């Protein structure tokens, strides 16, 4: 231990600790901007490029960045001296001097960390007017907008993309003032191997990286009297949306969500959870089929589109490993424009399916050529949780005080198994609940598989079904997925089934969710809420969903049958 003094407070701290960490222990806040420390992900962005955490070292007459300066024995630190405060303010003023002054119309308005800092540090005018950058926005992809003019070179996105996701898409290009962050040679995002996981967007402090806004497309569809507009909401929305209306993280808003969607004027309000149950019918059948017929093992879940892009780009030799099931929201789009259209006597060409998703990659997924070749068979528009909250505000809906209501039928019923899709481990737990009963013919009494739960990046468990030990692997975060995929490629994997989600925590931590600004507890609270929602359901196994059973009886025939293959399964391309 060493002795230091911060703002006259004497304290003992472990050797090797930074001034920022020591101040935190002393309950003293030092503002930061480029710094990002996501403990669970072991992600520390330590570029010290912004200098917003400058503190003064007394006796040494120096100003240092607290995030990278180690505390040493006898150090006397002032975080609140005039020199330190002025240096911090100057750092922010310098950033603002060449930043586009368009806060009113910026997608990050009121969510921007640079903007909040300017307020917190009392910046009232900018003493210098610097040269402005004038780069074109990259609007090439269906998912992400890259606006280099708003980049403050914090490099958080780069650390996230390279170290956590191991995708290696983003890095610094150019030198000096003209340096920007982007794919190698600054090629358009759409031509890179970006998975559109959106984790770079989730950690960008400004609007240098944001999702493409598709809200206007939804408003246009809703105002077209010729269109029948159907909406669906992903499992992870119901435990996160409330945050954007001042509610505590982990507040469950399922009933309010259904009411809000009806008030917005959607013709039918369906639930992606219904399709998650449908996915389990297909995926559990596929797993059993592969196990019983010597098929390719392990089978990998396929509902996360960023993960699908990742395997296509990075492991093209393994494309026969993922399940061929389309993701639940795409399945719901298909069933809406076939079964539902037929049942209601609607022209599928006049149906517009909107997905409200926690995910940015779902935008690119809905635009995939093999899924769009038949336009009467897919999802038309995807908006994120954040975009959807904006729409509710535009519509003047007092979300917090809405009464509860239910989803519409016949595609609105769901079980607890489908809700847990929203968290890492949930898809495979749901599949096991069904596979167990189908293989044994016995009732599964305890449906909660605690060994598959948690937040660790890689987890595993073994479930005994009849005389078989089914070995399950789970990865969340693409860097963790890479490790399991390398084992498969090298013939070392012993799993029967693996669930992979690209985002840390699964969809609850999706790139389109409310920003948590580095507070990992927020994602954990969303996870607890998902499990609570599962426990509150009467039915907790997908194959017990009465509307799913009716769908098979009236339209699809049997799970993993001919009609299912035609409508609910897909293929992957390198
Ligand atoms: Fe997900 Fe899924 S769980 S991928 O994480 O399989 O986005 O929530 O909607 O499609 O159901 C996301 C969430 C979501 C799909 C389902
Ligand atoms: Fe990297 Fe994901 Fe961002 Fe693409 S979306 S640049 S893969 S972090």
UniProtKB/TrEMBL annotation:
Domain 4Fe-4S ferredoxin-type intervals: 142-161, 186-214
A Pfam family assignment: Fer4
Cited CDD domains: fer2
Domain named 4Fe-4S His(Cys)3-ligated-type: residues: 83-122
InterPro entries listed in its UniProt record: 2Fe-2S_ferredoxin-like_sf, 2Fe-2S_ferredoxin-type, 4Fe4S_Fe-S-bd, 4Fe4S_Fe_S_CS, Cytosolic_Fe-S_CAF, Fe_hydrogenase, Fe_hydrogenase_lsu_C, Fe_hydrogenase_ssu
Any one GO molecular function term: iron ion binding
SMART domains, sorted: Fe_hyd_SSU, NADH-G_4Fe-4S_3
Descriptive protein name: NADH:ubiquinone oxidoreductase
Species assigned in the record: Crassaminicella thermophila
């Amino acid at each position: 231990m060493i002795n230091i003094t911060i703002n006259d407070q004497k304290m003992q701290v472990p050797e090797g600790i930074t001034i920022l960490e020591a101040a935190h222990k002393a309950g003293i806040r030092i503002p930061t901007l480029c710094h990002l420390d996501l403990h669970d992900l072991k992600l520390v962005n330590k570029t010290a490029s912004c200098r917003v955490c400058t503190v003064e070292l007394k006796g040494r007459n120096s100003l240092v960045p607290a995030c990278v300066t180690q505390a040493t024995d006898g150090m006397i630190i002032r975080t609140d001296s005039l020199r330190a405060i002025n240096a911090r303010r100057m750092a922010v003023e310098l950033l603002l001097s060449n930043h586009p002054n368009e806060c009113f119309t910026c997608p990050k308005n009121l969510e921007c960390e640079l903007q909040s800092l300017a307020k917190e540090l009392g910046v009232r005018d900018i003493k210098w007017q610097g040269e402005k950058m004038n780069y074109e926005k990259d609007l090439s992809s269906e998912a992400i907008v890259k606006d280099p003019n708003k980049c403050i070179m914090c490099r958080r996105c780069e650390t996230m993309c390279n170290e956590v996701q191991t995708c290696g898409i983003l890095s610094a290009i150019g030198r000096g003032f003209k340096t920007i962050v982007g794919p190698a040679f600054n090629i358009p995002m759409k031509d890179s191997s970006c998975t559109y996981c959106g984790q770079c967007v989730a950690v960008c402090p400004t609007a240098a990286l944001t999702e493409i806004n598709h809200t206007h497309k939804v408003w246009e569809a809703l105002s077209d009297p010729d269109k029948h507009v159907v909406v669906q909401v992903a499992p992870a929305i119901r435990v996160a949306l409330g945050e954007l209306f001042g509610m505590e993280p982990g507040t469950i808003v399922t009933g309010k969500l259904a009411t809000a969607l009806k008030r917005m004027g959607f013709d039918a309000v369906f639930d992606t959870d219904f399709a998650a149950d449908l996915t389990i019918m297909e995926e559990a059948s596929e797993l059993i089929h592969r196990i019983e017929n010597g098929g390719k093992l392990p089978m990998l879940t396929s509902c996360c589109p960023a993960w699908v892009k990742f395997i296509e780009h990075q492991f093209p030799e393994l494309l026969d490993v993922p399940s061929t099931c389309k993701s639940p929201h795409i399945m719901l789009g298909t069933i809406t424009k076939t079964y539902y259209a037929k049942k209601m006597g609607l022209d599928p060409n006049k149906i517009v399916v909107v997905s409200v998703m926690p995910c940015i990659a779902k935008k690119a997924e809905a635009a995939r050529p093999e899924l769009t070749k038949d336009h009467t068979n897919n999802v038309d528009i995807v908006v994120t949780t954040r975009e959807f909250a904006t729409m509710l505000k535009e519509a003047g809906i007092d979300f917090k005080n809405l009464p509860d209501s239910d989803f519409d039928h016949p595609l609105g019923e769901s079980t607890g198994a489908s809700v847990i899709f929203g968290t890492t481990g949930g898809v495979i737990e749901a599949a096991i609940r069904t596979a167990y009963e189908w293989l044994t013919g016995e009732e599964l009494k305890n449906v909660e598989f605690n060994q598959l739960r948690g937040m660790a990046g890689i987890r595993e468990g073994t479930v005994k079904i009849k005389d078989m030990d089914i070995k399950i692997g789970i990865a969340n975060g693409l860097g963790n997925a890479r490790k399991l995929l390398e084992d498969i490629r090298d013939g070392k994997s012993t799993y029967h089934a693996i669930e992979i989600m690209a985002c840390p925590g699964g969809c609850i931590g999706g790139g389109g969710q409310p920003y948590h600004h580095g507070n990992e507890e927020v994602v954990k609270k969303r996870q607890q809420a998902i499990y609570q929602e599962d426990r509150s359901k009467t039915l907790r196994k997908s194959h017990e969903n009465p509307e799913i059973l009716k769908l098979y009886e009236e339209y699809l025939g049997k799970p993993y049958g001919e009609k299912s293959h035609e409508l609910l399964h897909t293929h992957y391309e390198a």
